[in-house]
From TrEMBL:
The keyword Cell cycle does not apply. One of its GO terms (molecular function) is transmembrane transporter activity. It is found in: Membrane. This is Solute carrier family 43 member 3-like. Residues 242-274 are annotated as: Disordered. InterPro entries: MFS (IPR011701), MFS_trans_sf (IPR036259), SLC43A3 (IPR027197). Its main location: membrane. One of its GO terms (cellular component) is membrane. The keyword Transmembrane helix applies. Gene3D superfamilies: MFS general substrate transporter like domains. The lineage of its organism: Eukaryota, Metazoa, Chordata, Craniata, Vertebrata. It is a multi-pass membrane protein.
Length: 511
């Protein structure tokens, strides 16, 4: 039993899980299918006024230079990806303060506004893409934030479900591939985005019937339920439960106080915790775990954003501007994104692999979760290094392997990010900490546009040196899992020393 109570409550849990998966898969992360949408937008003449005619060669051959158009599309994606992450901080505060329903209603409003703006945009109104794609991105991340808590309904499968939802978020980028294929079949861009707008009715129904007004607590109280007319159990007060966590009430195992999961470290790297109290938000942010996790996420995310944002001009360069070949590789890239939902749960299984096994003497569930996460974080860093090396290659056929590594790494990256924050820090701060780490990483992601400008300008369109620099930068990501590994090893040694000391004391007392 996936942590369900059975009966109507168990059915409601499963419906929430299934519909949340569909929501993340079909709507939440569509903006990351940008390469497919750019192909359609170029055909429709968006930003075409940035193309110029150049006379080259002894025969005065006239060629069209659309590097200015590519730069505008890159800027749209830079702004969109920045807003997607940076606004996660205020969105996290909204989620923690006002709960699930208010956050989802805000997300639905933004998402619908964005899809309608794209639907009624045109080549003459190309600038509408800037706010439109940003609204869609922010609305989509709000869907993901409110769905992550669904993992709390399913006990020992919590990390698996969190990573599954993040994988579905990644796979939703294939929606723009579907729009591209429909466009080539005669369906207009306006019709496709109007369909996405109408689907907001589904989000509203799910908000009222299959999601809580406030939050889903963890660990889950017996008989917990939610939604419209859930019965007698509706008298359960989530806010009171959250308050008990803040006042430091303890319980066995993974209790509400969550004192064991706080990886606070002082300047010398020592673990510290104030037993009986939930660590403050400020102390979480000042911990070494938060710092290295931020570095881990930022360097890999920058690599992915630059790759996605510059995929179309890169393919045009490698394919010698053969539009049919570019379309073929663009479709291949978008198709591989569908497999993110299949790749991500493997990361969750890695993080949950210790569940159900006996703990080491003196080890808490939270310490076991943290120890298990180090392997996941290391594999994610290794995948990104391999992906960056392949992406740096000028061989066009090798990009098929690049696409596979990209979707595998991206599904591990975001699923592992959400799971680690939920494991390593108190749950009462999840929304704020998740939002803060995403917002700060968004600031780093702004470097993608200067990198693009550098390639187009001083490097003459050759991204080789920028790719090498980013590949070397990804090596910083390995510090985070190594730090966690040694932290957990140190805790193990401390327990063994304490156990040995206790045994010696006991022996001396008997003498």
């Amino acid at each position: 039993m996936l942590g369900c109570e059975g009966g109507g409550v168990g059915l409601r849990y499963r419906l929430t899980l299934a519909t949340g998966l569909v929501e993340c898969l079909c709507f939440a992360g569509v903006v990351f299918g940008w390469a497919s949408l750019v192909f359609v937008l170029k055909t429709d003449g968006y930003f075409a006024d940035f193309c110029v005619n150049l006379t080259t060669g002894p025969n005065s051959t006239v060629e069209t230079d659309c590097s200015g158009q590519d730069e505008q599309f890159s800027l749209v994606f830079t702004v969109t990806s920045f807003m997607n992450n940076f606004l996660t901080l205020p969105n996290g505060f909204i989620f923690d303060r006002f709960g699930t329903m208010a956050t989802r209603l805000l997300g639905i409003c933004l998402y619908t506004t964005g899809t309608l703006m794209v639907a009624f945009s045109s080549s003459a109104l190309s600038m509408l893409l800037f706010p439109a794609l940003s609204f869609i991105a922010v609305g989509g991340i709000l869907f993901l934030i409110t769905n992550i808590q669904v993992g709390n309904l399913f006990g020992s499968h919590r990390s698996t479900i969190i990573t599954l939802y993040n994988g579905a978020f990644d796979s939703s980028s294939a929606v723009f591939l579907i729009i591209k294929v429909m466009y080539e079949g005669g369906v207009s861009l306006r019709s496709s985005f109007l369909i996405l707008s109408v689907c907001s009715v589904i989000h509203l129904l799910r908000t009222f019937f299959l999601m809580p007004n406030t939050h889903i607590p963890y660990p889950l109280p017996e008989g917990f339920t939610y939604g419209v007319n859930p019965g007698k159990s509706n008298s359960y007060n989530v806010e009171e439960f959250e308050k008990t966590r803040e006042t430091g009430m303890t319980s066995e195992g993974e209790g509400p106080a969550e004192t064991d999961d706080m990886p606070l470290q002082s300047d010398d790297g020592q673990h510290s915790e104030d037993s009986g109290k939930v660590a403050s938000f400020r102390s979480c942010v000042q911990s070494w775990f938060f710092l290295w996790h931020l570095v881990w996420l930022s360097v890999m995310q920058l690599r992915h954003y630059l790759f996605i944002g510059t995929l179309n001009p890169m393919l045009n360069r490698l394919a010698d501007n053969d539009s049919a070949l570019v379309s073929q590789y663009t479709n291949a890239f978008a198709f591989t994104q569908l497999f993110g939902v299949l790749c991500a749960p493997w990361n969750g299984l890695i993080m949950d692999r210790h569940k159900g096994k006996p703990l080491a003497p003196g080890e808490t569930d939270k310490e076991a979760d943290l120890r298990s996460s180090s392997l996941s974080l290391f594999l994610t860093s290794l995948q990104c290094l391999l992906f960056s090396i392949c992406a740096s290659s000028p061989l066009l056929p090798l990009q098929y392997l690049t696409f596979i590594l990209q979707v595998l790494n991206r599904s591990f990256l975001y699923g592992g990010n959400a799971a680690f924050v939920s494991i390593a820090f108190p749950g009462v701060h999840f929304g704020k900490l998740y939002g803060l780490v995403m917002s700060l990483s968004a600031v780093v992601s702004l470097l993608q546009y200067p990198c693009f400008a550098l390639v187009k300008g001083a490097l003459g369109g050759d991204p080789f040196y920028v790719n090498i620099a980013l590949t070397l930068l990804t090596l910083l990501a390995f510090i985070h899992p190594i730090n966690i590994f040694y932290h957990c090893r140190k805790l193990t040694n401390q327990r063994e020393d304490m156990a040995g000391g206790a045994a010696i004391t006991l022996a001396e007392a008997k003498m």
